[in-house]
Design the sequence.
């Protein structure tokens, strides 16, 4: 309650200052614009997925990915290289909303025998999240590069920013290789025993005595 009151008080005081009022208005408009963009991407990706699966696209994609040479390792290498290059042209939202829902069931089927059906999707999801982080650090949709370009002085060239991001992209690639080679870096805590005995958990609902219902005098 104190936090909400403090935030409300700050907003009210900031609205009295013309410069801050315009800045708050711009922030609201930008937030709403981005939220609408993400919502329409989600709606469009859902429509695309329904049509794609309706024409047996999922079966075709499953046959394509399961027939890759190398088995599990071939699948992981192909998917990570594919996501890395797709991130050059699509940002995180398109990849997460369109591509991942199509390959996640296939990944669970292929990776399940290797690490188990439960941890398979968790391992796969963390792996691709680390991979997709590179999309924020390389052009043309490197949002981190655009943010740095906005605050960097004019003396710093865009090419310098792009070249400076290459070591970080290399570190991300090494991180992806570590997650692929060592699944335990993701799944090691999934098998941790539960310290709480669920059989001893009791939920007590207090008994509340309700007054008798009064329906008024009986009708004649």
Sequence:
């Amino acid at each position: 309650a104190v936090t909400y009151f403090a935030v409300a008080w700050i907003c009210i005081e900031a609205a009295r200052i013309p410069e801050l009022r315009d800045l708050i208005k711009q922030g609201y408009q930008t937030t709403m614009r981005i939220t609408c963009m993400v919502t329409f991407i989600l709606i469009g990706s859902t429509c695309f997925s329904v049509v794609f699966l309706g024409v047996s696209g999922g079966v075709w994609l499953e046959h394509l990915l399961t027939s890759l040479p190398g088995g599990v390792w071939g699948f992981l290498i192909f998917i990570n290289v594919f996501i890395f290059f797709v991130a050059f042209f699509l940002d995180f939202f398109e990849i997460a909303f369109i591509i991942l829902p199509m390959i996640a069931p296939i990944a669970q089927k292929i990776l399940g025998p290797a690490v188990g059906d439960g941890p398979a999707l968790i391992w796969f999801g963390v792996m691709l999240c680390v991979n997709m982080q590179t999309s924020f650090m390389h052009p043309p949709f490197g949002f981190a590069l655009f943010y740095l370009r906005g605050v960097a002085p004019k003396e710093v060239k865009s090419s310098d920013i792009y070249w400076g991001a290459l070591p970080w992209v290399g570190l991300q690639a090494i991180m992806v290789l570590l997650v692929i080679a060592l699944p335990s870096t993701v799944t090691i805590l999934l098998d941790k025993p539960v310290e709480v005995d669920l059989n001893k958990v009791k939920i007590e609902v207090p008994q509340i005595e309700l007054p008798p219902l009064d329906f008024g005098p009986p009708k004649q």
Remarks:
- The chain has two domains: 1-55, 56-190.
